[in-house]
Specification:
With 510 residues, this protein is mostly helical. The chain is 57% helix and 3% strand. The protein has one domain. The strands form three sheets. It has a three-stranded antiparallel β-sheet with strand order 1-3-2. A two-stranded antiparallel sheet has the order 4-5. Strands 6-7 form a two-stranded antiparallel ribbon. Helix 6 (137-149) runs antiparallel to helix 19 (439-453).
Length: 510
């Protein structure tokens, strides 16, 4: 470990980032080499954009490229004998990014391969992000490994069908936005240090006499200059890029509290104002897009789909998990029901023959056609699929007063609550795919947690005994574990579980 730590400290961080991207591309491509790509809504949407339409051609049942089996489409009225079209509910950014490829390859564009490559780039961006959070290269390295192969980002990237590709694209811009905010925060700290040291780092130019005279006589110019003084440029860009992430996954916008606590500006108001001013631009774009494409500020496709799909598809393992149609598509009443899937739901033990038809005639074996344990298609607890997330509890308890910890916790909680309030938690998935929406914010917390626990030792049984009020135990109280071992173990288990889930997800054709 000492040699590896020394090598990490000496290596150029750009080369380490390139190593991560290369490693991720190799493993991601190897994990799902065939990439059938049944659902490529965004390729059809990109094709529609290139032809000057918002609606995709649907249903197409003849020819080399068909989409009659697509779900999540609201049909548009059409006269008999004329082409028929449908509207998608998804924000347009993934389709916009695919447009250059569709312009060249048409409907043959491999959106899944695009998602694999972009997912690998996300791993490089995750390394770039973690190095902004800690000077400990080993902690940043381990946290990046966890994000790349210990979270459901791995599964989302290699599948990259419509719903998963939206997550991958959103993560790209979210990682960039968070990193920009951290850069703005660091620049603010350097400026403050220079001011405290008696050095003025602002380098303000002497005022132009003509401009000063004009400003005195123009109330508009005076207020404009005062308003501009409230905006931090780098924080503005952080908010803008963060807003772009919402053009792929709408719920990410609820991570905005992070940019109130973290970034440039020097105060809560300036950070929020600068980032909000940037984020409002792409948010306005999605509103304008909805109005132009559907005539409504909020896309009506979501409500239409809710009415069509509620109880029509088995989104939940039991009937009681559905709730009531009267609750609507988004309601806090869904939170207790969906929390079971997100935080508690286990894998399938001795899965039924419906999932593995060969089990009807084959003895159940661990490695044969009939496994003892398989992922549940309804999802699995994120604490089972990514147990390294448990480290968040340690940093939350130890450093909750730090703005970056508070901001990341607030962002994770806000996004999670909104997703849990949705009537559906996804369908046919490994793990809990909605966790991708807050994964970059959670990565901030995991990185800080790894850096915090790395040099420490934990007397687990002693703390548990004190918490329960039990008598002293000379044997158990001596048992301890180093923070480094704890972090390495949790990340290793996370990677193994996700490798298992990726294998079964690909094997079952999910």
């Amino acid at each position: 470990m000492g040699r590896l730590r020394t090598a990490l400290e000496r290596a150029d961080p750009a080369y380490i980032g390139l190593f991560f991207v290369t490693l991720a591309i190799g493993i991601y491509v190897f994990s799902n080499p065939h990439r059938i790509g049944w659902y490529n809504h965004f390729v059809w949407q990109a094709d529609a954009f290139l032809h000057g339409r918002f609606g995709i051609a649907w249903p197409v049942v003849d020819g080399p490229f068909v989409n009659g089996f697509f779900q999540d489409i609201m049909p548009l009225p059409s006269a008999p004998g004329t082409p028929s079209y449908g509207l998608l509910p998804f924000p347009p950014l993934p389709a916009v990014l695919l447009m250059p490829f569709v312009a060249v390859f048409g409907l043959a564009t491999d959106a899944q391969l695009f998602g694999v490559v972009l997912g690998a780039i996300n791993v490089g961006l995750a390394w770039r992000l973690t190095t902004r959070l800690t000077e400990q290269r080993s902690a940043a390295f381990l946290a990046t490994l966890f994000f790349a192969f210990g979270t459901v980002h791995w599964y989302a990237a290699i599948i990259s069908t419509t719903w998963f590709l939206a997550h991958v694209v959103a993560i790209t811009f979210l990682l960039l936005g968070i990193t920009l905010a951290l850069d703005a925060e660091r620049r603010e700290q350097i400026r403050r240090a220079l001011r405290l040291g008696g050095v003025d780092g602002s380098h303000k130019a002497s005022p132009n006499p003509l401009a000063a005279t004009f400003e005195q006589k123009s109330l508009f110019v005076a207020w404009a200059r005062r308003l501009a003084g409230q905006v931090d440029g780098l924080q503005f860009m952080a908010g803008f890029v963060f807003g772009l992430a919402a053009l792929s996954r709408l719920t990410i916008i609820f991570g905005a509290p992070f940019f109130v606590f973290v970034g440039g500006g020097g105060s809560y108001f300036k950070r929020a104002f600068s980032a909000g001013l940037g984020a409002v631009i792409p948010v306005a774009v999605i509103g304008l897009y909805n109005i132009v494409s559907s005539g409504h500020l909020f896309s009506p496709v979501y409500e239409w789909l809710f009415q069509q799909q509620f109880h029509a598809l088995p989104y939940a393992p039991y009937e009681d998990f559905y709730g009531e149609r009267s609750w609507g598509a988004e309601n806090p009443l869904f939170i207790p029901l969906n929390s079971v899937i997100a935080f508690v739901w286990p894998p399938d033990i001795l899965p039924s023959a419906d999932l593995f038809p060969a089990c009807k005639d084959t003895a159940r074996t661990m490695l044969g056609a009939c496994p003892i344990v398989a992922p549940s298609k309804f999802g699995m607890s994120i604490l089972l699929t990514s147990p390294a997330y448990l480290l968040i509890a340690l940093i939350a308890g130890a450093a909750w007063r730090k703005r970056v910890v508070l901001g990341a916790l607030a962002a994770v909680a806000a996004i999670a609550l909104v997703n849990l309030a949705h009537f559906s938690q996804g369908w046919v998935q490994f793990g809990y795919r909605f966790s991708n929406d807050f994964a970059p914010f959670a990565l901030v917390l995991v990185t800080l947690a790894i850096a915090w626990v790395w040099p420490r030792r934990f007397h687990l049984f002693e703390r548990l005994r004190r918490w329960l009020g039990l008598p002293v135990s000379p044997i158990l109280d001596r048992f301890s574990i180093s923070g480094r071992t704890l972090a390495l173990s949790l990340v290793a288990i996370s990677i193994l579980v996700n490798a298992w889930g990726v294998y079964w997800g690909v094997t079952l054709g999910w």
